[in-house]
Every structure is written in structure tokens, then in C-alpha cells.
């Protein structure tokens, strides 16, 4: 069976399934070079058709039963001061239409009717690309649930979805039966804990999509007072098993209320309080879901943008009575095309790899001569060994090789690698890439070495996609300070030879040379840009970021002053 999943909303994307495999998946942002690209993913669709050599599908599923042209959540969440939004808040219309189940049901029905034209428009654009097949529409949170629960080898479990807001809903509980999610309950969007965290993100001066900066900053503050204040405005009702937005409000009024509440606190304390409040609320929600489920100790599947919060995910794994915790690798809206495709796909998909996007074609001849002249190609018969020697010598190496990863994490094919022994690498590399971060870079480690460096509380596969933190061992804090946060945690990618034999071999050779089995792994992109996709974008970023060396397919480029370090 051939299935196509398409998401036309925030962080739009495309997924193609063939029988029991995912054969292509990518997000539109990588093509337009605009982060979290919104709208019809025409470029990703075009490459999917070319890559898979197919245009007729058994099922075409679009995420969202209400396709809207709204360009971004940012205006809705961060500063919408229209008279309509203010009137709605004054008269409590937001609470009625988005805060009650009856209101959400009515609003969704009305919006489905009003947005029929947008659905017709997207179907016509599919036909214009020559794409044919029966078209379906997937509920937003059900697609989230499917993106996590259908990828892992279990026929039963509990799927939890939590995000900011999706089709009037902010959270849901789903029972997994025979690999398919069945809705148990949902929380209306007005009561969103994800929106609370977004308000704090904006209040601290960060942009939509930079919630991870709040998570990193949180470890530097004391959040007890801010946490209590936030939980007085939004809390979890144990009896009704739902979040309750008691007095936070919605949109601009909520933002202004928080600005007034928190004006006396430092940024660090605000971040710490928001993180603590989020963890408290979500843990209570999942704990209640487990208690009311048919499972004594369920396998837990997590999806939705809130589960991009790796510190939250660690606490879920460590503190709740569960058999295992699986976080969708592309947990936010970027993974909705995958979830949508899975919902109308007859075959059970077996998760094999996240290297599902553009293949690197190492042709850079079209680049300007002045750009090409800043590096020299080094011909090598042992690429892995040469890269390991560069890393052992303290150099920074970018990798653009093989197919691009699907999701927000760079997992070795679009990565920047460096030694983890110098804590200053965080500042120096961030400066090169024009980034500002409060959390250290993530480590990459072989599966056979992982337990020597990290306190692992789950099976190794749970750490393959950088979706959860764990505590670093004393050895790691001494040998690899660059990847350890101030709270003693790290966000490792545990690598198997099967997943990425090239990087695995680099790690093996690097360990033989240095006695250390851990490297820094950060995404290959400049500040505020998506991860690189093509050879040309990779080469430009290599030069612009003053990175020491670049692996481009099977080719190795170095800045001229480095060429004597090899061979």
C-alpha cells in the first residue's frame, strides 16, 4: 500500500509510506530556508514524488480537519491586540468557545464549514502536481498520537498528546489498541499549559520555536515562587482529570497579566518557575491518565510540541510507573504528516530510520569561486580515520552526508562534531554559528559505551533520537564538560552501528586515539536557519561559520591552514 501524508500548517511537511516502511519524510522549512514554514509544502512534495517515483496513492491524508490560511500562531499568541480578540476576552467568549467541550465542538463544526474552500484549494494544488488518490483528513491530535504510537513495537499502550493548541484542543489521552490510537479524553485549548509556556517564552524575549532556550535557562534560577504563582492561575483538577485555566486568560491579556505578575523576578527565576510548573502539570495529567487506564504499567507514547521539552521527558521516564517511554522523534507539528499518513495506512509500519530526506549530491561547482577558494579538498582513502584525527586535534568538523534526518534533531548526517573536553567549545562554536544558547551541546556516544558515561534509566533505543535527558556520570563531568548542563544532565544520542555506520566508526577511531568515547553533536545550521539540506547550503554554512573541516558525501574539505594535520 502507498500512502501520502501532508501537513499544510505550522512546520508543514510530507511523508510517504510504502507497505511497512517510511520511504520519504521531510519538512518544507528545509527547502524554503524559513524555520517552521507554514502552508502547502510544494517543494517537499515535489522531491517526494521524484525520490519515490510515484504520483498515485492508495490514501492521501492531510493533517487537520479545518485547513486555515492563518500564517502563524505567533500573532494569535504573542501580541494580537485586535478589538475582536480584546472583546472576546472581556466577554469571556474565548473561555466559552475554546474552554468548554460544547464550545469546542461548536467552533470546530463551524470552522470546518467555513474552511471548506481551503480544503478544496489544497486538493486542487495536489492535482496540479499530478498527485491522485482518495483524500482523507486527520484530526490534529490523533495525528500526533499516531506519529508516536505506530512507530514502536508494541500492540498496546497509552499515547499522550500535549501541545499549545491544535483544532481547539491542547491535550489528549489515547489508548493504543493493535497499533492504532483510540481517543479517551481531550482538554479544550483555552486551558493549554503549552500556551502558558509560550507566553513565558515571549515574555523572556525569545521567539516562537525557541522554547528550548527557556528550558536551558531554567537550570540557572530558583523557580519556587514563580511556580506557585503560575499554578494559582492554571492548575490540574484531579477530580475532572483536566487542566483548568482559572485566571491566566488567553492571548494578549494573558501575556500582559503575566508581565505584571512577574515584573519583580529575574529571567532565570521566571524560566525556572515556568519549567517547574509545566513539569508539575504534565506529570499530574499523565499520572491521572495511567491511574484511570486499563494498564497497570503501560508503555507510554508521547507527542505534541510540549514533549520537545527534554527535561520534562526525563522526569516522566524517571518518576512515573511505566514500562517504557517513547517520544515521537518529530514530536511537534513537523511530525503531523507522518501521523496523518499512518492513520489511513493498512500496513503496520516498522520503524527503521529517520534518515528519510534529501540525499547529498556533493556537487558544488555552481558556487562562487571566491567561496570555493577558501577551502581545499583533501583526498583520502580513510575518511573516518582522517575525521577522527581532526577531532582528536581539537578541530571542528561538519558532516553533510547521506539522507537528511526527519525531525528537529541532527543525528549524524547533518551534524557538527567536536571534542567534548573543552567546556569553552559551547561559547566559541555558538559564536561561529551566531547562536545564543543556555544549554550545552548534546553528546553522541556508541551504544556499547553509553552506560559508562550516563545514568541510563531506560532501554538504549529510548535515547537514540535526543528526546530525553539523563544524568551524566562523574567520569563524564570530568572528561566531557562541554556536554554537561549545570544541573548535571545531558541529552545524549546513543548510536548503533546499524543506524549510522560512518559516524559510529568515527567514534570508534576517536576513542582509540583519545581514550574518550563521547563527541559533541550539534545541528549543522547557522543561527535562525533550518538544518542544511543540500551540498551547496552545507558548503556555504561551512565557510560562513568558519568551521575547520567539512565532510560532504565522501569528500573532505579543510581550510587551507589545516591540510597539514591529515596524513
Helices and strands, with pairings:
Elements: E1 2-7, E2 13-18, E3 21-27, H1 29-32, H2 42-52, E4 59-63, H3 74-77, H4 83-90, H5 93-99, H6 101-114, H7 116-128, E5 135-138, H8 140-149, E6 156-166, E7 169-177, E8 180-188, H9 193-203, H10 211-218, H11 224-233, E9 234-237, E10 242-245, H12 252-261, H13 267-291, E11 299-303, H14 310-319, E12 324-327, H15 336-343, E13 355-359, H16 369-372, E14 376-378, H17 383-392, E15 397-400, E16 403-405, E17 414-419, H18 425-433, E18 442-446, H19 450-453, E19 454-455, E20 470-472, H20 474-479, E21 489-490, E22 493-495, H21 501-514, E23 518-523, H22 535-544, E24 549-552, E25 555-558
Supply the key terms.
five-stranded mixed beta sheet, 3 domains, DHBP synthase, 567 residues, globular, alpha+beta, eight-stranded mixed beta sheet, Nucleotidyltransferase, domain 5
CATH C-level class of the largest domain? Alpha Beta
Distance between the first and last residues' Cα? 50 Å
CATH architecture of the largest domain: Alpha-Beta Complex
Report the uncertain regions. 69-84
Look up the CATH topology of the largest domain. Answer: DHBP synthase
| Residues in β-strands, percent | 15-25%
Main sheet? 8 strands, mixed
Mean pLDDT: 91
The percentage helix is 25-40%
- Count all strands and give the number: 25
Which oligomeric form is depicted? single chain
Instruction: Quickly count the helices.
Output: 22
Shape: globular
Count of discrete domains: 3
Strand arrangement in the largest pleated sheet: 14-25-24-15-17-23-18-22
Q: Nearest-angstrom radius of gyration?
A: 23 Å
Amino acid at each position: 500500500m502507498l500512502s501520502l501524508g501532508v501537513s499544510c500548517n505550522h512546520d508543514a511537511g510530507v511523508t510517504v509510506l510504502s507497505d511497512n516502511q517510511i520511504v520519504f519524510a521531510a519538512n518544507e522549512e528545509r527547502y524554503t530556508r524559513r524555520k517552521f514554514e507554514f502552508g502547502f509544502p510544494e517543494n517537499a512534495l515535489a522531491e517526494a514524488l521524484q525520490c519515490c517515483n510515484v504520483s498515485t496513492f492508495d490514501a492521501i491524508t492531510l493533517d487537520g480537519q479545518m485547513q486555515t490560511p492563518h500564517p502563524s500562531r505567533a500573532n494569535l499568541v504573542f501580541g494580537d491586540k485586535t478589538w475582536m480578540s480584546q472583546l472576546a476576552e472581556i466577554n469571556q467568549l474565548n473561555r466559552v468557545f475554546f474552554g468548554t467541550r460544547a464550545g469546542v465542538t461548536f467552533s470546530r463544526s463551524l470552522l470546518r464549514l467555513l474552511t471548506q474552500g481551503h480544503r478544496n484549494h489544497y486538493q486542487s494544488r495536489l492535482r496540479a502536481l499530478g498527485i491522485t488518490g482518495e483524500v482523507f483528513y486527520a484530526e490534529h491530535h490523533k495525528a500526533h498520537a499516531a506519529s508516536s504510537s505506530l512507530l514502536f513495537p508494541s500492540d498496546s499502550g497509552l499515547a499522550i498528546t500535549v501541545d499549545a493548541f491544535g483544532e481547539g484542543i491542547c491535550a489528549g489521552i489515547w489508548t493504543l489498541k493493535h497499533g492504532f490510537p483510540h481517543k479517551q479524553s481531550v482538554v479544550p485549548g483555552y486551558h493549554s499549559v503549552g500556551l502558558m509556556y509560550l507566553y513565558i517564552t515571549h515574555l523572556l524575549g525569545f521567539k516562537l520555536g525557541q522554547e528550548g532556550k527557556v528550558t536551558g535557562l531554567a537550570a540557572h534560577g530558583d523557580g519556587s515562587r514563580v511556580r506557585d504563582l503560575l499554578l494559582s492561575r492554571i492548575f490540574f483538577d484531579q477530580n475532572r482529570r483536566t487542566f483548568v485555566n482559572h485566571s491566566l486568560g488567553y492571548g494578549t491579556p494573558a501575556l500582559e497579566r503575566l508581565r505584571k505578575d512577574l515584573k519583580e523576578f529575574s529571567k532565570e527565576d521566571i524560566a525556572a518557575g515556568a519549567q517547574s510548573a509545566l513539569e508539575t502539570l504534565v506529570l499530574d495529567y499523565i499520572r491521572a491518565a495511567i491511574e484511570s487506564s486499563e494498564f497497570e504499567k503501560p508503555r507510554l507514547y508521547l507527542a505534541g510540541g510540549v514533549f520537545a521539552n527534554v527535561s520534562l521527558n526525563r522526569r516522566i521516564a524517571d518518576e512515573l510507573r511505566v514500562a517504557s517511554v517513547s517520544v515521537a522523534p518529530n514530536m511537534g507539528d513537523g511530525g503531523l504528516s507522518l501521523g496523518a499518513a499512518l492513520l489511513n495506512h493498512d500496513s503496520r509500519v516498522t520503524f527503521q530510520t529517520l534518515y528519510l530526506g534529501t540525499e547529498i549530491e556533493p556537487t558544488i561547482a555552481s558556487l562562487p569561486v571566491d567561496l570555493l577558494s577558501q577551502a581545499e579538498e583533501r583526498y583520502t582513502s580513510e575518511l573516518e580515520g582522517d575525521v577522527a584525527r581532526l577531532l582528536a586535534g581539537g578541530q571542528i568538523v561538519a558532516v553533510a552526508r547521506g539522507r537528511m534526518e526527519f525531525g528537529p534533531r541532527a543525528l549524524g548526517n547533518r551534524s557538527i562534531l567536536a571534542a567534548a573536553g573543552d567546556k569553552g567549545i559551547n561559547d566559541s562554536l555558538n559564536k561561529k554559528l551566531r547562536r545564543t544558547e543556555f544549554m550545552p551541546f548534546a553528546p553522541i556516544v556508541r551504544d556499547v559505551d553509553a552506560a559508562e558515561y550516563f545514568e541510563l534509566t531506560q532501554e538504549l533505543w529510548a535515547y537514540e533520537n535526543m528526546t530525553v535527558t539523563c544524568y551524566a556520570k562523574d567520569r563524564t563531568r570530568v572528561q566531557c564538560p562541554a556536554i554537561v548542563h549545570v544541573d548535571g544532565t545531558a541529552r545524549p544520542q546513543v548510536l548503533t552501528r546499524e543506524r549510522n555506520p560512518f559516524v559510529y566508526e568515527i567514534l570508534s577511531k576517536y576513542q582509540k586515539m583519545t581514550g574518550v568515547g563521547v563527541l559533541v553533536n550539534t545541528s549543522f545550521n547557522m543561527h535562525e536557519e533550518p538544518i542544511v539540506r543540500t551540498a551547496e547550503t552545507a558548503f556555504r554554512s561551512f565557510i560562513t561559520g568558519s568551521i575547520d573541516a567539512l565532510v560532504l558525501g565522501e569528500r573532505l574539505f579543510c581550510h587551507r591552514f589545516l591540510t597539514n594535520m591529515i596524513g
